[in-house]
Design goal:
UPF0434 protein DVW87_14980; N-terminal domain of TfIIb; Trm112-like
Amino acid sequence: MSRALDPALLAILVCPVTRGPLRWEAEAGELVSDAAGLAFPVRDRRPVLLVDEARRL
């Protein structure tokens, strides 16, 4: 997914583990929590913020 994530949505999303900020990785189509060391997928332009679905960095 190379499309940009809505900046307004990104501003309100937080990591479900740390409650810290997420950054958008457009090439991978993931939201990354550097603090938790996790990358959460975005499917059909919808963030999947489930720890079981996240990829460890």
